DNA sequence: ATATATGCAAAGGATTTGCACGGTT
DNA sequence: AACCGTGCAAATCCTTTGCATATAT
């Protein structure tokens, strides 16, 4: 008998049942700005909700990705990572990835023209390749302060 | 007794031994513009060089990535893909990825300002986050002509 | 009451590791 | 000859699937 969380209504517009695992996973991700792996998510939930199954975490994350609540991206070390997709445009960000320690820095202080250019590029690509652009993934990689 | 291929000299500046597997793998990747998975590379080599081991393919690809001959990137379906890194600047490209059929379209017909902006962004990020930017990964995702 | 979600255990797939043998230098 | 690279088999790690049970509607 899951509680009444803020996501419930929006969630049920997409899928049928509002359950405890779905609630706690969505809640966890919405409260952190980290890019969490499945293992990390599972470990974190286990504390407050032992008995949760790893399988459920995987399945719920898939669900949330498909429903558009979170983003999934491969982190380069063979695992996927997940981040809450904010509805505030302000929180849209790109990544800066350290190839050595694998730290990921978000940045959203875009160069003025950056977003405008992305938009323009998307339009041109859409026409040229008859492609329906749904999003983008922009990351710069290199060495962070500590590793260089 | 490996042959004398064009890569040999450049290769030996980085690592020690020039062997048959290293030659054929590098040669294969340099001749295709595809983004090949390990499985595909292995299958392709197996025809002309049966007896090659899957392990060797993995190890050689690692080596080539570290030596800067090829790029590795996760393809979203749990596998990594590899592409030859051309030294011609003209062949630098970004990706357009179909989320349904997983087709990857390269595009290098950048919007005029695209590369300039990327460069500018890299400089700013470098300063702001004390980050040594070594490269970038820019991809747009969505639905290709057939899948939409 | 009924359909859906869960948790466990087992399966699946990609990648890595240990080790004896073989090839380059 | 010495050392590094290779290939095989087994091990590992992440993710998915089958199935009986529990739960939301």
Short description:
2 copies of one chain form a homodimer. By secondary structure, chain A is of the alpha+beta class.
Structure description:
The structure is a homodimer of 148-residue chains. With 148 residues, chain A is of the alpha+beta class. Chain A has helices spanning 8-12, 20-31, 38-48, 54-66, 112-129, and strands spanning 36-37, 70-74, 80-84, 94-98, 104-107, 132-143. The radius of gyration of chain A is 17 Å and the shape is globular. The first copy, chain A, starts with 7 loop residues before the first helix and ends in a 5-residue tail after the last strand. Chains A and B meet through helix 5 and strand 6 of A and helix 5 and strand 6 of B. The structure holds a DNA duplex (25 and 25 nucleotides).
Average pLDDT score of chain A = 84
- CATH topology title of the largest domain in chain A: Arc Repressor Mutant, subunit A
Please give the order of strands in the largest beta sheet of chain A. Answer: 1-3-2
Q: What structural category characterises the helix and strand content of chain A?
A: alpha+beta
Overall tally of structural domains of chain A: 2
| CATH homologous superfamily placement of the largest domain in chain A | Winged helix-like DNA-binding domain superfamily/Winged helix DNA-binding domain
What would CATH call the class of the largest domain in chain A? Mainly Alpha
Order of helices and strands of chain A: HHEHHEEEEHE
Number of helices of chain A: 5
Distance between the termini of chain A: 51 Å
Q: How many β-strand stretches of chain A?
A: 6
Largest chain interface and its two residue counts? A-B, 37 and 37 residues
Biggest pleated-sheet summary of chain A? 3 strands, antiparallel
Uncertain runs of chain A with pLDDT below 50, 5 residues or more? none
Range of strand content of chain A: 15-25%
As a whole number of angstroms, the C-alpha radius of gyration of chain A is 17 Å
Helix content of chain A: 25-40%
